[in-house]
Design a protein that fits this description.
This protein is an alpha+beta fold. Helix content is about 40%, strand content about 15%. It is built from 5 helices and 4 strands. The strands form 2 sheets. The protein has a two-stranded antiparallel ribbon. The chain has a two-stranded antiparallel ribbon with strand order 3-4. The protein starts with 7 loop residues before the first helix and ends in a 7-residue tail after the last strand.
C-alpha cells in the first residue's frame, strides 16, 4: 500500500489516540520524557508481546465503537458518531461495492498459525480454509 502526504494527518491522529488513550495506561510506559516515567519502568513492564496484542485489539474494538467529535452526520450535526456508526451510515447512503482481492491480498488475509521453529528458522503455516460458494 502506497502512502501519500495526505495520509499523514490521519495516521498521526490515530497514533496520538493510541498513545494517549491506550499506551500511557500500560505498566512500564516510559512516556515522552523522563518526567513522565515511573521510578523503574523496565521492572513495571509485565506484558508479553502477545498479551499486548490482545489488549490492543480489545482497545481497538472499544475505540471503534466510541463517539469521535470529528465524525458527524449532516442530518444529525449535534451527534458525534463512532467510526462503526459513520461507516454504517455511509454504506446505507451510498451502498457497498465489493472489490475483488488480488491473489497477494487474499493470501495476507488467510489465518496463520505458528507451526514451530528450529534452531535456524521459524515456520509459519497457513491454516486451511473452507471456501463457500
Amino acid at each position: 500500500m502506497q502512502l501519500t502526504t495526505r495520509d499523514k494527518p490521519h495516521i498521526e491522529t490515530t497514533l496520538g489516540s493510541v498513545a494517549s488513550m491506550f499506551v500511557q495506561h500500560l505498566p512500564g510506559h516510559k512516556g515522552r520524557s523522563t518526567e513522565h516515567r515511573g521510578t523503574d519502568p523496565a521492572a513495571e513492564a509485565v506484558w508479553t508481546i502477545h498479551q499486548l496484542q490482545e489488549l490492543l485489539q480489545e482497545w481497538i474494538v472499544h475505540w471503534q465503537n466510541r463517539p469521535h467529535d470529528g465524525l458527524r452526520d449532516p442530518l444529525m450535526p449535534g451527534k458525534a458518531l463512532s467510526p462503526n456508526e459513520k461507516y454504517a451510515a455511509l454504506v446505507a447512503a451510498a451502498g457497498h461495492v465489493p472489490v475483488a482481492l488480488s491473489p497477494d491480498e487474499y493470501i495476507e488475509l488467510l489465518p496463520a498459525a505458528d507451526a514451530g521453529s528450529t534452531p535456524t528458522a521459524s515456520v509459519l503455516a497457513i491454516a486451511p480454509t473452507t471456501v463457500l460458494s
